[in-house]
Amino acid sequence: MKKYLQKLAVAVLACAGFASCADEFDATDHASYPAEAPGLGTWVADQSATSGPFTKDYFCELNITLSSAGDTVYNITTVSTPYNQYGLPADYPICAPAGRLAAYDDTTGVTLLEFDQVEEGNVLGIGLTPGRAHLAYSRAWDKLTVDLDFYYNNDWYPFQNNAGNGTFTLTKAARPSFVNGYWFGQGSDGSTYVFYLTYTQQQQVGVDAEGNPVTVTFSGQCVVGNAQDLCTYAYDKTTGTATVTTVPMPGTPAQQATTYTLQYNEIGQLTYSTGTETVILDRMAY
């Protein structure tokens, strides 16, 4: 009988222990989220699945930075891969620039962003439209799920259902992955600096003596000061540095290519040094 009572006491203590653990688990088994919406920094989608059974139509990123005016802006960029199913050229950018924080719920970890203009409508042939995005923290706070919508004809439509580029999951990154898109800056003297960096294409610029077309290959356009040129560009995401090189026109004597260097700074602003000042370039809808 004594041994029986001892065993019963152990069993009762064990049950009490389990109940205590269960109570503690029930009390804490809910996600807690940051007190504020995501701050300055870059979040990118996995960019490795570009072949095999897991090909992607777009690469995506969210860059939260400051505009040239000092406002916090949320720039969402999707860039088509060579494997996209929608007929877009590789590296074609679709941007939702200059988003602003509309609301954040720290009980759900969901952020609402609003955009005056997004480029989704350009792909669909309806032009620039307003947009919105919902960003949702994962339970571990290490990922953001993004859902993008655009506004057209008095209603909201999901990007994903219309061009396959509106729903994705991001993780924190050291630097932005892309420089693709339309950038605008203005110097203190009023000089304009525009870099429109898109995808590789050809343009006919004339004909030769035999009447054959003369073409140039370029991947963007730039306006620096008063000079407007076609250009090519390259971007090194390990350093956050882009080089933009003008494309000399055939038949123009003594015209030399000019190279401009663009640089993401420590808070994700894209900048251009004129030699006398550093101009912050704002991402714009085009």
Key phrases:
286 residues, mainly beta, eight-stranded antiparallel β-barrel, 3 helices, 49% strand, globular, disordered N terminus
Folded structure, characterized:
The structure is a single chain. The protein has 286 residues and is mostly beta strands. 13% of the residues lie in helices and 49% in strands. The chain is built from three helices and 17 strands. It has an eight-stranded antiparallel barrel with strand order 1-2-3-4-5-6-7-9. A hairpin with a 2-residue loop joins strand 7 (143-152) and strand 8. The model is unreliable at 1-28 (pLDDT under 50).
Report the average pLDDT across residues.
87
As laid out across the biggest beta sheet, the strand order is 1-2-3-4-5-6-7-9
Q: Shape, please?
A: globular
Distance N terminus to C terminus?
A: 86 Å
How many strands appear in the DSSP assignment? 17
The fraction of residues in strands falls at: over 45%
Written as H for each helix and E for each strand, in order along the chain, the element string is HEEEEEHEEEHEEEEEEEEE
Helical fraction = 10-25%
Number of helices: 3
Task: Tell me the major beta sheet.
Answer: 8 strands, antiparallel, barrel
Rg estimate, integer Å: 26 Å
Structural category is mainly beta
Which spans of ≥5 residues are poorly predicted at pLDDT below 50?
1-28
